[in-house]
Write a structure and sequence with these properties.
- The chain is an alpha/beta fold and 393 residues long.
- The protein folds into 2 domains: 4-222, Pyruvate-ferredoxin Oxidoreductase, domain 3 (3-Layer(aba) Sandwich), CATH 3.40.920.10; 242-362, Alpha-Beta Plaits (2-Layer Sandwich).
- Helices cover 29% and strands 20% of the residues.
- The chain is built from 12 helices and 13 strands.
- It has helices at residues 17-33, 65-72, 123-126, 159-170, 177-188, 191-203, 286-290, 316-320, 341-347, 349-361, 366-369, 378-392; strands spanning 4-12, 37-42, 54-62, 80-85, 109-119, 137-143, 206-209, 242-246, 253-258, 272-276, 296-298, 304-306, 327-331.
- The chain has a 7-stranded mixed sheet with strand order 2-3-1-4-5-6-7, sandwiched between helices.
- Helix 1 (17-33) packs across helix 5, helix 4 crosses helix 6 and helix 5 packs antiparallel against helix 6 (191-203).
- It is globular, with a radius of gyration of 23 Å.
- 44% of the residues are buried.
- The structure holds iron/sulfur cluster (2 copies).
- One iron/sulfur cluster (SF4) binds at residues 276, 281-287, 304, 320-321, 323, 326-327.
Protein backbone atom coordinates (compact mmCIF):
# COMPACT_ATOMS: atom_id res chain seq x y z
CA UNK A 1 0.00 0.00 0.00
CA UNK A 2 1.18 3.50 -0.84
CA UNK A 3 0.63 6.73 1.01
CA UNK A 4 -2.79 8.30 1.42
CA UNK A 5 -3.43 11.99 2.09
CA UNK A 6 -6.60 13.89 2.93
CA UNK A 7 -7.16 17.63 2.64
CA UNK A 8 -10.24 19.20 4.19
CA UNK A 9 -11.76 22.55 3.23
CA UNK A 10 -14.15 24.16 5.74
CA UNK A 11 -16.34 26.74 4.05
CA UNK A 12 -19.60 28.63 4.29
CA UNK A 13 -22.41 26.83 2.53
CA UNK A 14 -23.68 28.36 -0.73
CA UNK A 15 -21.47 31.47 -0.47
CA UNK A 16 -18.25 29.47 -0.87
CA UNK A 17 -19.46 26.21 -2.38
CA UNK A 18 -17.96 26.78 -5.83
CA UNK A 19 -14.74 28.09 -4.30
CA UNK A 20 -14.33 24.98 -2.11
CA UNK A 21 -15.13 22.70 -5.05
CA UNK A 22 -12.59 24.50 -7.27
CA UNK A 23 -9.88 24.03 -4.63
CA UNK A 24 -10.44 20.33 -3.96
CA UNK A 25 -10.83 19.63 -7.69
CA UNK A 26 -7.65 21.65 -8.33
CA UNK A 27 -5.71 19.55 -5.79
CA UNK A 28 -6.73 16.34 -7.53
CA UNK A 29 -6.01 17.57 -11.06
CA UNK A 30 -2.66 19.06 -10.06
CA UNK A 31 -1.68 15.87 -8.19
CA UNK A 32 -2.39 13.91 -11.41
CA UNK A 33 0.50 15.83 -12.96
CA UNK A 34 2.74 14.36 -10.23
CA UNK A 35 1.53 10.86 -11.14
CA UNK A 36 -0.85 10.57 -8.19
CA UNK A 37 -4.48 9.57 -8.09
CA UNK A 38 -7.26 11.32 -6.25
CA UNK A 39 -10.88 12.18 -5.76
CA UNK A 40 -12.70 15.25 -4.47
CA UNK A 41 -16.14 15.29 -2.88
CA UNK A 42 -18.44 17.30 -0.63
CA UNK A 43 -19.53 16.10 2.75
CA UNK A 44 -22.79 14.29 2.16
CA UNK A 45 -24.30 15.34 5.49
CA UNK A 46 -23.92 19.04 4.61
CA UNK A 47 -26.23 18.81 1.66
CA UNK A 48 -28.65 20.50 1.16
CA UNK A 49 -26.72 23.52 2.32
CA UNK A 50 -28.20 26.72 3.66
CA UNK A 51 -26.66 30.18 3.29
CA UNK A 52 -23.62 30.42 5.54
CA UNK A 53 -23.89 26.97 7.10
CA UNK A 54 -20.43 25.54 7.88
CA UNK A 55 -19.75 22.75 5.38
CA UNK A 56 -16.80 20.61 4.28
CA UNK A 57 -15.19 19.49 1.04
CA UNK A 58 -12.41 16.92 0.77
CA UNK A 59 -9.62 15.89 -1.59
CA UNK A 60 -8.16 12.40 -1.14
CA UNK A 61 -4.84 11.75 -2.84
CA UNK A 62 -3.02 8.42 -3.08
CA UNK A 63 0.10 6.97 -4.62
CA UNK A 64 -1.79 4.12 -6.29
CA UNK A 65 -5.23 2.81 -7.10
CA UNK A 66 -5.38 0.24 -4.31
CA UNK A 67 -4.55 2.84 -1.65
CA UNK A 68 -7.10 5.26 -3.07
CA UNK A 69 -9.81 2.60 -3.05
CA UNK A 70 -9.03 1.79 0.58
CA UNK A 71 -9.23 5.49 1.44
CA UNK A 72 -12.51 5.92 -0.41
CA UNK A 73 -14.12 3.10 1.57
CA UNK A 74 -14.55 5.62 4.40
CA UNK A 75 -17.61 7.83 4.43
CA UNK A 76 -15.32 10.74 5.15
CA UNK A 77 -11.74 10.97 6.46
CA UNK A 78 -11.49 10.70 10.22
CA UNK A 79 -8.12 12.46 10.17
CA UNK A 80 -6.73 14.90 7.63
CA UNK A 81 -3.22 16.04 6.70
CA UNK A 82 -4.25 19.63 6.10
CA UNK A 83 -7.27 21.79 6.89
CA UNK A 84 -8.13 25.03 5.11
CA UNK A 85 -10.68 27.47 6.57
CA UNK A 86 -12.07 29.81 3.92
CA UNK A 87 -13.77 32.31 6.27
CA UNK A 88 -11.97 33.36 9.44
CA UNK A 89 -15.21 33.80 11.42
CA UNK A 90 -15.40 29.98 11.28
CA UNK A 91 -12.37 29.89 13.62
CA UNK A 92 -14.94 30.07 16.44
CA UNK A 93 -15.96 26.56 15.50
CA UNK A 94 -18.17 24.88 12.96
CA UNK A 95 -21.63 23.54 13.55
CA UNK A 96 -23.13 22.03 10.43
CA UNK A 97 -26.37 20.19 9.77
CA UNK A 98 -24.43 16.98 9.88
CA UNK A 99 -23.15 16.69 13.42
CA UNK A 100 -24.17 17.73 16.89
CA UNK A 101 -22.57 20.48 18.93
CA UNK A 102 -19.70 22.73 17.95
CA UNK A 103 -16.56 21.31 16.34
CA UNK A 104 -13.21 23.11 16.56
CA UNK A 105 -11.78 23.78 13.10
CA UNK A 106 -8.82 21.49 13.80
CA UNK A 107 -11.15 18.66 14.83
CA UNK A 108 -9.80 16.21 12.22
CA UNK A 109 -6.26 17.60 11.85
CA UNK A 110 -3.43 15.13 12.50
CA UNK A 111 -0.99 16.22 15.24
CA UNK A 112 1.78 18.39 13.80
CA UNK A 113 -0.17 19.13 10.60
CA UNK A 114 -1.11 22.53 9.19
CA UNK A 115 -4.24 24.65 9.47
CA UNK A 116 -4.52 27.42 6.87
CA UNK A 117 -6.97 30.29 7.38
CA UNK A 118 -7.84 32.91 4.76
CA UNK A 119 -7.91 36.14 6.74
CA UNK A 120 -6.76 39.72 7.07
CA UNK A 121 -5.96 39.08 10.73
CA UNK A 122 -2.69 37.68 12.00
CA UNK A 123 -2.24 34.16 13.32
CA UNK A 124 -1.97 35.16 17.00
CA UNK A 125 -5.25 37.11 16.80
CA UNK A 126 -6.98 34.13 15.18
CA UNK A 127 -5.80 31.94 18.06
CA UNK A 128 -8.13 33.88 20.36
CA UNK A 129 -10.99 32.17 18.50
CA UNK A 130 -9.47 28.80 17.59
CA UNK A 131 -10.06 26.35 20.42
CA UNK A 132 -7.27 24.79 22.40
CA UNK A 133 -6.19 21.24 21.67
CA UNK A 134 -3.81 18.82 23.30
CA UNK A 135 -1.71 18.12 20.21
CA UNK A 136 0.55 20.72 18.56
CA UNK A 137 -0.11 21.93 15.02
CA UNK A 138 1.02 24.64 12.62
CA UNK A 139 -1.08 27.67 11.79
CA UNK A 140 -0.75 29.74 8.62
CA UNK A 141 -2.65 32.79 7.44
CA UNK A 142 -3.24 33.30 3.75
CA UNK A 143 -3.75 37.02 3.65
CA UNK A 144 -6.93 37.90 1.82
CA UNK A 145 -10.49 39.13 2.15
CA UNK A 146 -13.11 36.46 2.65
CA UNK A 147 -14.35 35.44 -0.77
CA UNK A 148 -18.13 35.07 -0.88
CA UNK A 149 -20.24 34.56 -3.96
CA UNK A 150 -23.57 32.97 -4.73
CA UNK A 151 -25.14 29.83 -6.07
CA UNK A 152 -25.07 30.90 -9.72
CA UNK A 153 -22.31 33.52 -9.67
CA UNK A 154 -18.63 33.15 -8.83
CA UNK A 155 -16.18 35.81 -7.73
CA UNK A 156 -12.99 35.02 -9.59
CA UNK A 157 -10.63 36.81 -7.21
CA UNK A 158 -7.84 34.16 -7.32
CA UNK A 159 -8.61 32.85 -3.81
CA UNK A 160 -8.79 29.33 -5.30
CA UNK A 161 -5.32 29.39 -6.88
CA UNK A 162 -3.83 31.24 -3.92
CA UNK A 163 -5.08 28.54 -1.55
CA UNK A 164 -3.69 25.93 -3.95
CA UNK A 165 -0.30 27.70 -3.89
CA UNK A 166 -0.31 27.59 -0.07
CA UNK A 167 -1.27 23.90 -0.10
CA UNK A 168 1.58 23.12 -2.50
CA UNK A 169 3.98 24.64 0.03
CA UNK A 170 2.42 23.09 3.13
CA UNK A 171 1.96 19.62 1.69
CA UNK A 172 4.58 19.14 -0.99
CA UNK A 173 4.07 15.39 -0.92
CA UNK A 174 0.53 15.87 -2.24
CA UNK A 175 1.13 18.43 -4.95
CA UNK A 176 4.34 20.08 -6.13
CA UNK A 177 4.50 23.69 -7.31
CA UNK A 178 5.49 22.45 -10.77
CA UNK A 179 2.42 20.21 -10.98
CA UNK A 180 0.22 23.07 -9.79
CA UNK A 181 1.65 25.48 -12.38
CA UNK A 182 1.00 22.89 -15.09
CA UNK A 183 -2.61 22.44 -13.93
CA UNK A 184 -3.31 26.20 -13.89
CA UNK A 185 -1.62 26.75 -17.26
CA UNK A 186 -3.37 23.86 -19.02
CA UNK A 187 -6.80 23.86 -17.40
CA UNK A 188 -7.35 27.44 -16.23
CA UNK A 189 -5.22 28.91 -19.04
CA UNK A 190 -4.18 31.93 -17.02
CA UNK A 191 -0.58 33.11 -16.54
CA UNK A 192 -1.86 35.70 -14.02
CA UNK A 193 -3.31 32.89 -11.90
CA UNK A 194 0.00 31.04 -12.09
CA UNK A 195 1.64 34.20 -10.71
CA UNK A 196 -0.96 34.41 -7.88
CA UNK A 197 -0.40 30.77 -6.90
CA UNK A 198 3.40 31.24 -6.92
CA UNK A 199 3.16 34.36 -4.78
CA UNK A 200 1.07 32.52 -2.19
CA UNK A 201 3.57 29.64 -2.30
CA UNK A 202 6.56 31.93 -1.75
CA UNK A 203 4.95 33.94 1.04
CA UNK A 204 3.61 30.94 2.91
CA UNK A 205 4.78 30.72 6.50
CA UNK A 206 3.49 29.03 9.63
CA UNK A 207 3.63 29.49 13.38
CA UNK A 208 3.88 26.56 15.78
CA UNK A 209 0.85 26.24 18.05
CA UNK A 210 1.73 24.52 21.28
CA UNK A 211 -0.59 22.14 23.15
CA UNK A 212 -3.10 24.16 25.20
CA UNK A 213 -2.65 27.39 23.19
CA UNK A 214 -5.82 29.06 21.95
CA UNK A 215 -9.40 29.76 22.97
CA UNK A 216 -10.12 28.14 26.37
CA UNK A 217 -13.90 28.15 25.82
CA UNK A 218 -15.69 24.87 26.52
CA UNK A 219 -17.15 23.57 23.26
CA UNK A 220 -20.92 23.41 23.06
CA UNK A 221 -21.83 19.73 23.14
CA UNK A 222 -24.50 17.41 24.49
CA UNK A 223 -25.14 13.71 24.79
CA UNK A 224 -27.56 12.13 22.38
CA UNK A 225 -30.01 9.67 23.96
CA UNK A 226 -29.22 6.00 23.54
CA UNK A 227 -31.81 4.17 21.44
CA UNK A 228 -32.86 2.26 24.56
CA UNK A 229 -33.82 5.59 26.18
CA UNK A 230 -36.26 6.43 23.43
CA UNK A 231 -39.97 6.29 23.99
CA UNK A 232 -42.23 4.03 21.97
CA UNK A 233 -43.91 5.50 18.92
CA UNK A 234 -43.29 8.90 17.45
CA UNK A 235 -43.68 11.76 19.84
CA UNK A 236 -42.30 15.25 19.56
CA UNK A 237 -41.93 17.14 22.77
CA UNK A 238 -43.97 20.33 22.69
CA UNK A 239 -42.11 23.61 22.97
CA UNK A 240 -43.04 25.80 25.96
CA UNK A 241 -44.03 29.33 25.02
CA UNK A 242 -41.50 31.40 26.89
CA UNK A 243 -42.43 34.51 28.82
CA UNK A 244 -41.38 37.80 30.42
CA UNK A 245 -38.01 38.36 32.04
CA UNK A 246 -36.33 40.79 34.41
CA UNK A 247 -34.58 44.11 33.77
CA UNK A 248 -31.04 43.67 35.19
CA UNK A 249 -31.16 47.08 36.93
CA UNK A 250 -34.73 47.67 38.11
CA UNK A 251 -35.57 43.94 38.38
CA UNK A 252 -38.93 44.84 36.85
CA UNK A 253 -40.33 41.89 34.92
CA UNK A 254 -41.76 42.43 31.45
CA UNK A 255 -41.33 41.87 27.70
CA UNK A 256 -41.23 38.43 26.14
CA UNK A 257 -38.45 35.97 25.48
CA UNK A 258 -39.64 32.97 23.45
CA UNK A 259 -38.54 29.58 24.74
CA UNK A 260 -35.90 28.17 22.40
CA UNK A 261 -34.54 24.74 21.78
CA UNK A 262 -31.43 24.54 23.94
CA UNK A 263 -29.76 22.10 21.60
CA UNK A 264 -30.48 23.83 18.32
CA UNK A 265 -27.87 26.57 18.28
CA UNK A 266 -26.96 27.71 14.79
CA UNK A 267 -24.95 30.81 15.51
CA UNK A 268 -21.80 29.43 13.92
CA UNK A 269 -23.54 30.03 10.56
CA UNK A 270 -22.94 33.70 11.27
CA UNK A 271 -20.14 35.75 9.71
CA UNK A 272 -21.81 39.00 10.78
CA UNK A 273 -24.05 39.92 13.70
CA UNK A 274 -26.58 42.71 14.24
CA UNK A 275 -25.80 45.45 16.75
CA UNK A 276 -28.76 47.48 18.00
CA UNK A 277 -29.11 51.09 19.07
CA UNK A 278 -31.79 50.88 21.76
CA UNK A 279 -31.83 54.70 22.12
CA UNK A 280 -33.07 55.30 18.57
CA UNK A 281 -35.34 52.24 18.31
CA UNK A 282 -38.92 53.38 17.65
CA UNK A 283 -40.35 50.00 18.77
CA UNK A 284 -41.92 49.52 15.34
CA UNK A 285 -41.62 45.68 15.70
CA UNK A 286 -40.41 45.15 12.10
CA UNK A 287 -37.20 43.35 13.10
CA UNK A 288 -39.13 41.06 15.43
CA UNK A 289 -41.77 40.28 12.80
CA UNK A 290 -39.30 39.64 9.99
CA UNK A 291 -36.48 37.73 11.66
CA UNK A 292 -36.63 34.25 10.05
CA UNK A 293 -35.13 32.63 13.15
CA UNK A 294 -37.40 34.35 15.73
CA UNK A 295 -34.22 35.66 17.31
CA UNK A 296 -35.53 38.89 18.81
CA UNK A 297 -36.47 39.14 22.48
CA UNK A 298 -38.96 41.85 23.42
CA UNK A 299 -37.19 43.51 26.31
CA UNK A 300 -38.99 44.66 29.50
CA UNK A 301 -38.79 48.25 28.15
CA UNK A 302 -40.33 47.04 24.83
CA UNK A 303 -37.28 47.48 22.62
CA UNK A 304 -35.92 44.53 20.61
CA UNK A 305 -32.74 42.64 21.49
CA UNK A 306 -31.21 40.19 19.00
CA UNK A 307 -30.67 36.92 20.86
CA UNK A 308 -27.23 35.91 19.65
CA UNK A 309 -27.58 32.30 20.74
CA UNK A 310 -30.00 31.78 17.86
CA UNK A 311 -29.24 34.53 15.33
CA UNK A 312 -27.79 33.12 12.09
CA UNK A 313 -26.59 36.52 10.85
CA UNK A 314 -28.80 36.76 7.75
CA UNK A 315 -29.10 40.58 7.90
CA UNK A 316 -32.88 40.71 7.33
CA UNK A 317 -33.36 42.82 10.48
CA UNK A 318 -30.90 45.45 9.24
CA UNK A 319 -32.68 45.55 5.89
CA UNK A 320 -36.16 46.06 7.39
CA UNK A 321 -35.32 48.46 10.22
CA UNK A 322 -36.59 51.91 9.13
CA UNK A 323 -34.27 53.89 11.44
CA UNK A 324 -30.79 54.81 10.21
CA UNK A 325 -28.01 52.89 11.99
CA UNK A 326 -30.48 51.43 14.48
CA UNK A 327 -29.54 47.90 13.42
CA UNK A 328 -26.16 47.40 11.76
CA UNK A 329 -24.53 44.14 10.72
CA UNK A 330 -20.86 44.02 11.76
CA UNK A 331 -18.10 41.45 11.36
CA UNK A 332 -18.51 38.52 13.75
CA UNK A 333 -14.80 37.90 14.30
CA UNK A 334 -14.45 40.80 16.78
CA UNK A 335 -16.79 39.15 19.33
CA UNK A 336 -15.95 36.48 21.85
CA UNK A 337 -19.39 35.91 23.41
CA UNK A 338 -23.12 36.01 22.75
CA UNK A 339 -24.02 38.28 25.66
CA UNK A 340 -27.20 40.37 25.55
CA UNK A 341 -26.63 43.83 24.09
CA UNK A 342 -29.69 45.22 25.82
CA UNK A 343 -28.37 44.16 29.23
CA UNK A 344 -25.07 45.91 28.48
CA UNK A 345 -27.06 48.99 27.43
CA UNK A 346 -29.13 48.90 30.61
CA UNK A 347 -26.06 48.54 32.81
CA UNK A 348 -24.11 51.44 31.25
CA UNK A 349 -25.92 53.33 28.53
CA UNK A 350 -23.11 55.80 27.72
CA UNK A 351 -20.45 53.11 27.51
CA UNK A 352 -22.70 50.97 25.30
CA UNK A 353 -23.48 53.82 22.91
CA UNK A 354 -19.79 54.71 22.65
CA UNK A 355 -18.93 51.10 21.92
CA UNK A 356 -21.75 50.94 19.36
CA UNK A 357 -20.56 54.04 17.54
CA UNK A 358 -17.04 52.68 17.30
CA UNK A 359 -18.25 49.27 16.17
CA UNK A 360 -20.50 50.73 13.47
CA UNK A 361 -17.71 53.00 12.25
CA UNK A 362 -15.54 49.95 11.63
CA UNK A 363 -18.31 48.18 9.66
CA UNK A 364 -17.93 48.20 5.90
CA UNK A 365 -20.70 49.74 3.75
CA UNK A 366 -23.65 47.44 3.14
CA UNK A 367 -22.89 46.72 -0.54
CA UNK A 368 -19.43 45.48 0.46
CA UNK A 369 -20.56 43.44 3.43
CA UNK A 370 -23.50 41.78 1.72
CA UNK A 371 -23.11 38.26 0.45
CA UNK A 372 -25.47 38.88 -2.43
CA UNK A 373 -24.90 39.84 -6.00
CA UNK A 374 -26.29 43.38 -6.08
CA UNK A 375 -25.28 44.98 -9.36
CA UNK A 376 -23.66 44.06 -12.64
CA UNK A 377 -19.90 44.34 -12.40
CA UNK A 378 -19.89 44.05 -8.58
CA UNK A 379 -17.78 40.90 -8.42
CA UNK A 380 -15.32 42.25 -10.97
CA UNK A 381 -14.74 45.33 -8.83
CA UNK A 382 -14.47 43.29 -5.64
CA UNK A 383 -12.13 40.77 -7.25
CA UNK A 384 -9.76 43.54 -8.31
CA UNK A 385 -9.76 44.98 -4.80
CA UNK A 386 -9.21 41.57 -3.21
CA UNK A 387 -6.30 40.87 -5.55
CA UNK A 388 -4.68 44.16 -4.72
CA UNK A 389 -4.83 43.35 -0.99
CA UNK A 390 -3.49 39.84 -1.62
CA UNK A 391 -0.61 41.12 -3.73
CA UNK A 392 0.49 43.54 -1.01
CA UNK A 393 0.63 40.49 1.25
S1 LIG B 1 -29.48 38.73 11.45
FE1 LIG B 1 -31.34 39.66 12.31
S2 LIG B 1 -33.00 38.79 11.10
FE2 LIG B 1 -31.22 37.47 10.74
S3 LIG B 1 -31.37 35.83 12.27
FE3 LIG B 1 -30.12 37.46 13.18
S4 LIG B 1 -31.53 38.71 14.32
FE4 LIG B 1 -32.76 37.49 12.90
S1 LIG C 1 -36.93 47.47 13.28
FE1 LIG C 1 -35.52 48.92 14.22
S2 LIG C 1 -36.84 50.57 15.00
FE2 LIG C 1 -38.15 48.81 14.59
S3 LIG C 1 -38.26 47.74 16.55
FE3 LIG C 1 -36.59 46.79 15.41
S4 LIG C 1 -34.78 47.92 16.07
FE4 LIG C 1 -36.54 49.13 16.68
Amino acid sequence: MGKLFAVEIIYRGIFQKTLAKNITRGIVLAAHNDGKLGISFGRYGDSPERNGIPAKSFAIIADDEQTLEAGMAQYEPKQVDLTVVLDDTLCKGAESWAWYGLQPVHHALKPGSTLIVVSLQDARTLLKSIHRREEPYKLAVLKGVTSFSGMWVYKDDHTDVRVLGAIAKALQEVVSLKALEQFITEKLKSPVKVASAKLAYERFKTIEVKPGEGNPEELFKFALPDWTDMRQGVSIKGQPQGGPYADPITKEVGGFRPARNELFKKYSTRSERPVVNFSTCTKCTLCWLNCPDASFDVTPDKTYDANLETCCGCGVCEAVCPVKDCITMVNESQFTDNASQWEAYRKDKDAYLKWLEKTIESAEPLEKRAYGYRYRGQYKEQAEEALEIAQKG
